[in-house]
Design goal:
The chain is of the alpha/beta class and 188 residues long. It is 37% helix and 14% strand. Strand 1, helix 1 and strand 2 form a beta-alpha-beta unit.
């Protein structure tokens, strides 16, 4: 934190929607942002307005999409504030054809981007198209959080116990490093 009480590090950006994986990712990102003393940026990507070349179908209006997005963000903020009332949280509601198109501009000034993973069954453990695109084009770390994983404090404590590391552990979640870096030990 700076003298004025504003965060001094780049923010942690997290994509949110109505999935349990996104809610878990938002809580994990909030814990990371709090530990780093930085701002949490919650982002919900609005779908693009459809263009019809055939007969139009009834779809939600742009206002309905915007209201739903604001509701997702408000619910996420309320849930995060229940555990971390002092955390600085900012909300963004960009429109984009895909989530990476909307998240990448925010990732340019972020310390990391966090997204949830809903992969189950035979594809569990594989990265989805959003994660791969973010990892390929982002200048910061990209973390893909399954909805069932523990909070970073629990993971770090378990790593220190397993690795015998007295210092802070750096590997939590599935981090896709932009550059090669050393780790205290391997996380699975």
């Amino acid at each position: 934190m700076t003298d004025a009480g504003t965060p001094s590090l780049a923010p942690v950006v997290v994509g949110v929607d109505d999935s349990a994986a996104a809610r878990a990712a938002a809580h994990w990102a909030a814990a990371v942002a709090e530990r780093q003393g930085t701002t949490l940026h919650l982002v919900h990507v609005l779908p693009p307005h459809p263009v019809f070349y055939t007969e139009p179908r009834p779809l939600p209006s742009e206002d309905e999409d915007h209201i739903a997005g604001e509701t997702f963000l408000a619910d996420a903020v309320r849930s995060i504030r229940a555990d971390r009332s002092a955390l600085a949280v900012e909300c963004f509601l960009p429109a984009g054809s895909t989530a990476p198109c909307a998240l990448l501009p925010l990732a340019d000034s972020a310390s990391m981007v966090v997204i949830g993973s809903t992969a189950r069954g035979p594809v569990e453990g594989y990265l989805n198209a959003t994660a791969l695109r973010l990892a390929h084009h982002s200048r910061c770390r990209v973390v893909v959080r399954p909805e069932t994983e523990n909070a970073p404090d629990e993971v770090a404590a378990r790593q220190r116990e397993r690795c015998g590391s007295g210092g802070k552990s750096r590997g939590t979640g599935r981090t896709i490093p932009r550059r090669r870096r050393a780790r205290d030990c391997r996380v699975r």
